[in-house]
Design brief:
The structure is a homopentamer.
Chain A: E1 2-9, E2 12-14, H1 23-32, E3 36-42, H2 46-56, H3 60-68, E4 74-77, E5 82-92, E6 97-108, E7 111-117, H4 121-131, H5 134-137, H6 141-174, H7 183-200, H8 204-212, H9 223-286, H10 294-297, H11 301-322
Parallel strand pairs in A: 3-7
Antiparallel strand pairs in A: 1-2, 1-3, 4-5, 5-6, 6-7
Helix pairs in contact in A: 4-6, 6-7, 6-9, 7-9, 8-9, 9-11
Chain lengths: 326, 326, 326, 326, 326
C-alpha cells in the first residue's frame, strides 16, 4: 500500500500535478527544483515495490530485503544511495508485551523511500513533525533519515521505560510476603528484553557512522543530531542490560523465597503434628490394659486425662510459637 | 564419488567431448574459452581426490583437510586460488536433531572443485539454480562460491527456525501445569545449539572478507551479495545466542517449577495426614480405660464419636482447602 | 534557579558591577580581562536556561539535554566549547540507599556554565576549594572542569566505601548462625551497584580523553590531574565489580545456608517424632486385648511400662544427640 | 639426561665423529656444511643444561625457564634465535586423567635444542617422522619446530577426543534413571578442561605469528603448515569450550534430577504412610470402649474389620498408583 | 620512617660522608659520579616524604598517592621520571588469609625512592639480592625497578600457590563423605582471589610497557627481564582465574551434596518411621474390642503378636536396607 508520497523543496511540501504514482515524473520535478521525493509504502505488494524500485533505481538485494522484512538493523551503502533497516518497537499495554515492526529506508540525493512493516505511528509522527519544521526539512533526505531514526529511538526509550515498570512490579511481587508464581513473568520479560536488544544493539553501528559524518549520503551537518540519537540508543541499551541483570537476581531471590517458604511450611507442619501426636501417646498410655493403673479408678480420671492432653498441646503450641515455628 | 563435473562458459553449461574424468583436458578447454570447470565430489576416495588435485594443482594440506573432513569453517588463501571449508547443517524432523556435513571448495581462476561430506541437498540446489541464472553464472567461479555459501547459509536459517520452534515447545512444556521432565530436552537443545554455533561463527570472518572484496580470487562485484550472506549469518548467530539464553532461563524456571511443585505436594500431604491423625487421636481417647467416661455409656455414644471424627476431619478439610493447601 | 555566578581573573573572584544576570556583560568583562565567567544553575527553568544559552551561544541539543537531565555521562565537543555530563552519587545513611543527581557543564574559552540536578554538595565544595587555590583557578575553565570532576569522583569513592560496608554487613548476616532473610537486601545492593556502574563506567572515556590532552578546550597541563581522576574512577569501578561478584557469591552462600538449615530442621523434626512414636508403639502393645499378657498382671506393670517408655525415649534422645540430629 | 643429539644436512642425519657431547664441535660441523644440530634433553641436570647453553649461546632467563619448567606456553624472540615453550598433554586411560608435560625449544639458524619434562612420546615421534621425510627436514630448524608443534597439537586433539568421550559418559549417567553421583566426576572433568585450556589458549599467539611468517627464525615457506597447526589448535580450543559449557548444563540437569528424585521419593513415602495410617485409624475406632458398638458383637466382626482395613489400603494403593505417586 | 638510603655506583654501595638524611647532597654526589641514590621509606610521615619530594623534585600528585596508599597498581610517566605503584601480597598461614601492602617507586635517572606500606620482606630481599649482583645493579635505577617488580611478583606466585592448596583442601572437603560446611570457606577464598586479582591484573600493563622498552626511564636492555616478570604475572593471573572457576564449580558440587544428603536423610527417616508404624498398626488391631477375636484366646497369642511385629519390622528393615534407603 502506498501511504503517502510527496515532493519537498526548500523545507516544505510541494503540490505536484502528476498523479501520486508516477514516481519518475515526481523525481524529475524534484531534482529539477533542488528538492526531493519522499515515498512512503506500507507492506507493499511485489508490484508496487517493483515500480518504485524502477523509478529510483534501487538495488535488487535491498528491495528483496525491504519486501521480506525480518532483517536485522543494518546500513548498506551503494554508490550514491544508502539502504537502512530499523526495527520499530512498541509496548502493548493490554498484553504487557513488546511488539516489533520494521522500517526500511532507501535514501538518495533526491529521494527517500520508506517501506514499513507493522505499526505505523512512528513514521506518521516523523513526517508530520518534519513538515512543521522547515529549517530541518530543508536539509533534504538527511533530515528525513534523522527524523525517522530519532522517532524510532524515542520509541525504544518508551518501551524500555515500560519494561522498567514491569521489572519494578516483578520485584515487588517477588519480595511480597504472598506466595506468587513469578517465574513465567520473569521469563516473558527476559524474552522481551532479548527482542529489544536485537533491535537496539545492531543499530548503534549505523548511527555511529552517521554521527561521524563518514556516510556520504548523509549531510555532515547532522552529526551532532545523530550523536544525540546514538546517546539515546546507548542509554536504552544500558538500561536494558541492567534490567536483564536485575531480573536474573530477582529470579534467584524468587528461588530463595520458595526455599524459605518450604522451610517455614515444614516447621509449621511439624509443630502441628507434634501437637496432635503427643496427646495420642497419652491416650495410648491410658488405653493400656494393666490391672493396676491407679488413674483409671480416679473419680475425675477421664477429666484429668483430657486436661493433661490439652495442657501438653497448649505447652507445645506455646513453645513452637515462641521459637517461630508456628 | 564424482557427482558431477562440467565446463561452464558465458553463463551456461558446455558439452565437452572428453570423458568426465579427464580434468586436465576439461581445464584446458575451459581456460581456452574463458570458461571454468566445476568438479563435484562426494566423499571421494584418496585416489579420486589425488587425481583432481593433480589436475588443478591443489595444495597438499588443503587436499588432506578436504579428505578428512572434521575441519572448522575456514578460508585459506594460496597464490591464485582459495580453499574454503563450510559446515552444512540440516534438521532431521523425526529425531528433532541437527546433523552436520561439510563442503570444501577449491576455487581458482578457471575451476571450482567442491568436496562434500554428508547430506547433499544444498549443493545440488545451488548448481541447479545457478545453471538457470546465466547472468549470475557468467561471473565465473565467484558466482559458484556465492551460490554455495548462500545456499548453505539459507540452510542455517532453516535449522535455526526449527530450533526456535523446539524452544517454543520447551517453553510451553516448562510452564504447563503438568509435571514434565524437560531437563534432558533442554540439554539436547543446548548441545545442538553449540553445534550450530560452531558452524556459524567461524564462517563470519571469511564472508566478511569476501564482502570487503579483499580476496583476490573472488570478484569484487559480488561484494553486496556476500554482504547479504553475512547479514543472514549474523542474524542466525544472534538468534542462536538468544535461544541459548532463553533455554538457560527456561531451565531455571523448570527448576523453580520443581520446587514449587514439591512445596505444593508437601502441603497436600500434610493436610491429608492431619485429616487422618486427628480422628486417630479421638479414637485413642475413647479407647482409654478410665472407669468413669460418661460418653461410653451413652446410647448413641459410638455414633457420636464417629460423627465427631467425621466433623473434625471435614472441618480440617475445609480449612486446608480454604488456605490453598489441598 | 541561579545559584551563583561570578567572574574570575588571575585565580580569584572579581567583583563585577553589572547585575548578576546580565551574562553577556559579564562575559564581555571577563573576556576583556583574560578571565572567565562561571555561572551556576540549579534545576533552571526553561527561560533561565534559554537566557544563559543565548549569552554563551550554547548548542541547542546540549541545552535540551541539560534541561531534561536523565542523560548518561558523556562528552560532546563543539567547535570551541565542550559539553560534559556527569552523574553525581551520594549515599543516604538513613535508607542505606544510593541517590543520583546530574551535573552538566558547558565549557568555553571564557566561560563555564554548570547545570545541576539534585543534591548540590559537590559543586559548592568544588567552587569553594577552587576559590582558595588561586594557582589552580588561574588555569581558567579547565581548572573548573578538573575541580568538578575530582569532587564528583571523590563522591563515587565515598559511595563505594559505604557500599563496601553494606556488603560486609550482608556477609556477616549470611554467615551468622541466626536465620536471616538476606535476599531482599542483596537484591537492593545489586540494584544500587548497577546504578553506580552506570554513573562510573561511561565517564571513563571522557576522563581518558582529558588525560591524553586531546580535548582542545581543556588545558594540556592538566593531563596528570585528569589521569589522577581516571585512576580514582577506575578504582571505584573495580571495587564495584568486586562487590557485585562477592554479592553473587554471598547470595549463593545464603541459598546453601537455607538448604543446610532445612536439612538440620528435618533431622531435628524426625528425631523428635521418633521420641514420641516409639513409646506410642509400646502403649499400643500393652493396649492389646490378649487374654494372657503376663505384664498386665504385674504389681508394678504400669510403672514398668512407663519406665520402659521413658527409657526408650531417653535412649533415642541420647542416640540422636550423639549423631548430631538434635 | 641427553636423549639424542645429531647433525642434519640436506634432509638427513649425518654421522659425526666427535663425541655426542661436544656440542661446540657438532655446531661447527653443522654450520660449515649448511646443516644444523638437534640436541634433545630430558629433564637435564643444571650442569648438562649449562653445557648446552654455553655451546649454543642461549639466553640466561630462557635457560632458567627451560630448567624449572612450569612455564606457560610462550614465544620469546632474541636477536637471531627464538625460545618456545609448549605444554604437552596426554590422557591416562586407567585414571581418566589428563597429565601435562612441557617442551622447551631453543631455535637458532644452525641448531635446535629441545628440553623435555614429562612424557616423551610426542618428541620421539616427531623426530622419527622427520627423519623419514627428507623434503621436510631439508627446511632446517623450522621443520623441527613445525614437526614438534604439529605433534604436540595432535596430542591436544587426542586428549580433547578422550574428554569428549568422558563428557558423553557423564551425560549418559546424568540422564540415566539410576541414582548416580556425578558431581565429583563433573568437577574433575572441569578441572581437566581448565588444564587443557591453559595449555592450548596461550599457544595460539605464537602459532599465529609463525603462520604470518613474521618470526625471523622461522622459514616463511612454512606459513601454510603453521596455519594448519593453528586451525587444529583453534578447533581443540572450541571443542573444549563447548565441553565446558555442556558440563555446566549437565551439572544443572543433575541438580534438577536430584530435586525430581526427591519429589518422587516424598510422594512415594507419603503414599506408603497413608496406606498404613488409615487402617490404624480403623483399628483405633474398634478399640474404643463404648458400651454399644454393634460391630463388636457381630459374628464375623473381626474379619469384617480386617477386610475393611485391607480394602481401604487397597483402594489407597490403587489411587496412588493411578496418580503416579507410587 | 626512613629505612635505608644509600648511593650506588658501578654496581656497588658507596659510603657517603654526608648524613643519611641530606638527600640533596647524596643526589649531587651520586650524579657527579654517575651513580644513583636509593632512598627507602616505610610509611613515612608527611614531613619525611615532603623532604624527599623536595630533594628529588617529585610530582605533587604522585607524592600524595604514595602517602595515602590504597592506590591501584599503575605507572605514571613524567618528563624524565616515572612513578610506579605495586601491590604486595603475602599469605598469613595462621589465618589462611591474604594480606596486601603497597610499594610506590619514584624512579629518575639518578635516584630511586621506594615508599612502602605494610609488610617489608620483599623490598629487603630485593635490595639485599641486588647488592650481591653487581652486574645487575650496574644498570642503575632500572635494575632496582626490575628487582622490586621481580620480587613482588614472586610474592604473587607464592600467594597463588598457597591459594591453590586451600582450593585443594576445599575440594577434598566438599567431596568427602562427612557433612561439612564449606560455603563460608569458599566465600572467603573467593574474596581473597578477588583481592589478588586486583593486585595482579592492573600491573600487566606497566610490565608490558617496560618489556616493550617504550618507557624512557627504563633501560631497554632490561626488556627480556621484564618480559619474564610479565610471564610470571600472566601465569599468576591465569591460575587465579582457574581457581576462581574451580571454586564456583566446587560450590555447586557442595550444593548438590547438600541436596543428595537431604534426600538420603529423608529416605532413612521414612524407612525408620515405617519400621515403627507398621507394628503400631498390628498393636492397634489386637487392641480392638471385638467379641470374637480367636488370637486373643490363644495360649501364646501375645507372644505370637510380638513375634509378628518383630518379623514385620525385620522384613521392612531388610527391604529398606536392600533398596539402599537405610
Amino acid at each position: 500500500m502506498i501511504v503517502d508520497s510527496a515532493v519537498y523543496r526548500d523545507g516544505s511540501r510541494v503540490q505536484v500535478d502528476c498523479g501520486g504514482h508516477d514516481y519518475a515524473a515526481m523525481r524529475k520535478t524534484a531534482a529539477a527544483e533542488g528538492g526531493f521525493v519522499w515515498v512512503g509504502l506500507h507492506e507493499p505488494s511485489h508490484q508496487e515495490l517493483a515500480g518504485v524500485a524502477r523509478a529510483f533505481d534501487l538495488h535488487r538485494l535491498a528491495v528483496e530485503d525491504a519486501f521480506n522484512a525480518h532483517q536485522r538493523p543494518k546500513l548498506e551503502q551503494y554508490e550514491d544511495s544508502i539502504f537502512l533497516v530499523l526495527k520499530t518497537l512498541w509496548y502493548v499495554d493490554e498484553e504487557d508485551a513488546v511488539e516489533t515492526g520494521e522500517i526500511a529506508l532507501f535514501v538518495g540525493p533526491d529521494f527517500v523511500v520508506t517501506v514499513r512493516h507493522g505499526h505505523g505511528g512512528r513514521l506518521h509522527e516523523a513526517r508530520a513533525r518534519l513538515e512543521h519544521t522547515a529549517h530541518v526539512l530543508d536539509h533534504g533526505p538527511s533530515a528525513v533519515v534523522y527524523a525517522v531514526c530519532d522517532s524510532v529511538v524515542d520509541g525504544y526509550t518508551e518501551v524500555v521505560d515500560s519494561l522498567q515498570e514491569d521489572v519494578d512490579e516483578v520485584e515487588a511481587s517477588v519480595f511480597s510476603p504472598q506466595r506468587t508464581n513469578d517465574s513465567a513473568r520473569i521469563y516473558t520479560l527476559k524474552r522481551e528484553i532479548s527482542e529489544v536488544r536485537r533491535a537496539v544493539l545492531p543499530l548503534r553501528e549505523p548511527m555511529r557512522r552517521f554521527a561521524q559524518g563518514t556516510v556520504e549520503a548523509i549531510d555532515g551537518d547532522g552529526a551532532p543530531f545523530f550523536r544525540d540519537v546514538t546517546d539515546h540508543l546507548t542509554q536504552a541499551a544500558e538500561i536494558v542490560e541492567t534490567l536483564d541483570t536485575l531480573l536474573s537476581t530477582a529470579f534467584e531471590a524468587y528461588l530463595a523465597g520458595i526455599s524459605v517458604q518450604q522451610n517455614d511450611d515444614m516447621r509449621k507442619i511439624s509443630a502441628g503434628a507434634a501437637i496432635v501426636v503427643v496427646p495420642t501417646l497419652i491416650a495410648g498410655i491410658y488405653g493400656m490394659n494393666f490391672d493396676r493403673m491407679p488413674e483409671l479408678a480416679w473419680r475425675f480420671g477421664y477429666g484429668y486425662a483430657l486436661v493433661l492432653m490439652a495442657t501438653v498441646s497448649g505447652l507445645l503450641w506455646w513453645f513452637f510459637k515462641r521459637s517461630g515455628w508456628l
